[in-house]
Design goal:
alpha+beta; Alpha-D-Glucose-1,6-Bisphosphate, Chain A, domain 4; 7 strands; 36% strand; globular
Length: 156
């Protein structure tokens, strides 16, 4: 049975850059390798990020390297992008909201509306330190990723 009692993970950051600038960064999935502590490379099949686009991630944690397959399930420029990871069924998203000062509020979220696959839960328990440990690592990774996006977006 898949793990179905999965609380969403979420992190939010205020960025002193307009939404168009932030969108240009987060909507290019190949940028994820610069920000995510696990992602080493993203290859968008066909080269264009859009609704329905498929991509492959190469992830790394220590000596462990693994691929995942994703598909963009929401692409609402310049407000929201979300993608689903095939192997574990999770949906990752970035939502942009303009602030009253010309900046951007960026929200990153991981949800599992259909639960997390047996395959992913089994690997998490046996290879990634357990569900609680890995979930805490993912939450810290969300926050680290947003801090790096903020630094890139605010860079002149």
């Amino acid at each position: 049975m898949p793990l179905t009692d999965v609380a969403p993970l979420e992190a939010t950051i205020a960025i002193d850059a307009p939404p168009a600038r932030v969108w240009s960064l987060v909507s290019d999935l190949t940028n994820m390798r610069r920000w995510s502590p696990q992602n080493r490379r993203t290859i968008v099949l066909g080269g264009e990020t859009r609704n329905g686009a498929k991509f492959v991630n190469i992830n790394r944690r220590g000596l462990l390297v693994w691929p995942t397959q994703g598909m963009v399930v929401e692409y609402e420029a310049p407000r929201r992008i979300a993608f689903r990871i095939k192997e574990n069924w999770t949906i990752w998203s970035y939502t942009l909201e303009p602030t009253g000062t010309g900046g951007t509020r960026l929200v990153s979220r991981r949800e599992a509306p259909q639960g997390i696959s047996d395959l992913s839960v089994g690997l998490t328990k046996t290879v990634l330190g357990g569900v609680d440990t890995f979930t805490a690592e993912l939450q810290a990774g969300l926050e680290e990723t947003l801090a790096k996006i903020k630094a890139d977006a605010e860079r002149p």
